[in-house]
Amino acid sequence: MEVVILADAKEIGAVAADAIGALLGRKPAAVLGLATGSSPLMIYDELVSRCDAGLLTFHQTRGFTLDEYVGLPANHPERYHNVIDRVFVSRVDFAPGAVQGPDGLAADIRAACAAYENAIHQAGGVDLQILGIGTDGHIAFNEPGSSLASRTRIKTLTRQTRIDNARFFDDDIDAVPTHCLTQGLATIMAARHVVLVATGGRKAEAVHHLVEGPVSAMWPATILQHHQHVTVLLDDAAAHRLQLAGYYRETYRAKPDWQGI
Ligand code: F6R
Predict the structure, then answer these.
(1) Ligand 1: which of 141, 143, 202, 219 to mutate, judged by most atoms within 8 Å of the beta carbon?
(2) For residue 258, is pLDDT > 90?
(3) Full-prediction pTM beyond 0.85?
(4) What angle do CA 168, 172, 175 make, to 5 degrees?
C-alpha cells in the first residue's frame, strides 16, 4: 500500500488525474471504477479540466459506479446514477451508456446484483478504482461486519453512514435511504489499481485503521492491505493519526517524478 500525503485537495486531484491520464494513454478503452460522495470531486474536476483542454478523452472508456441507494426514484437528484452523471460523466466525453451502476429500482434485487457483477466481468474488470472511505471504515457501502469475500449485494446502511450522508438530503436523516446495492469487498479487490482518497480530520481514525490497523471486517477498508496495488491519497488532517507519516512522506519525496502512483 502506497500512502501519499499531499498539501491539499487540488494536489490530490492532480496526482490521481495523472494516474488516470497515464492509464488512458496506454489503454484508451480502460474501465474506471467511480465513487460518489465528496472525496473524489477534486479528481473529477481535474479530469474535466484536462478533457476540456484536449489533454485526455473518455470516448472509448467505460465506467462502473460502486453503489446505489435502493428505492430512490429514477429522477431523484441524490440517486448515485444521477450524481455521477452531474459531477463527472455529463461533463466529459463518455459515449452514451458507457457508465453503469447497480439498479436500485430492480424488482429482483438478487438478479440485479448478479447482472452487475457479470457486466463488470464482461467489460474485462476494473483497471482503476477510485474510492472514498466512510468514517466507520466502509468502502463502497460495505459497512462494518461485511464479509471480506463479499460480492455485489444489498446492504443496510449504518446509522452513522445515514447521519454522514444526511447533508445530501437537507440534513434530514429520515430522508436517507436505509438500504443500498453495493459492490462487495471481493468485487473491489478484483480491480487492478485502487486509488483511495481521504481528506479532513473526520477521516483520520478510519485512515489509521486502513493503513496501520489489523485486517478486520470491523474496519472493512483494511482488506485493501491484501491488494497488490493500492494508493492512498491523503491531506495532512486525514493523515494525522498515522504513526509512520514521516516515513510515507520521505518515501514519496524520494520517488522519481516519472514513476507516478
Ligand atoms: C460512495 C461510496 C462511499 C463513500 C464514503 C465517503 O459511492 O461508495 O463509500 O466513498 O461514504 O463519502 P464522502 O466522500 O462523501 O466522505
Answers:
(1) 141
(2) no
(3) yes
(4) 80
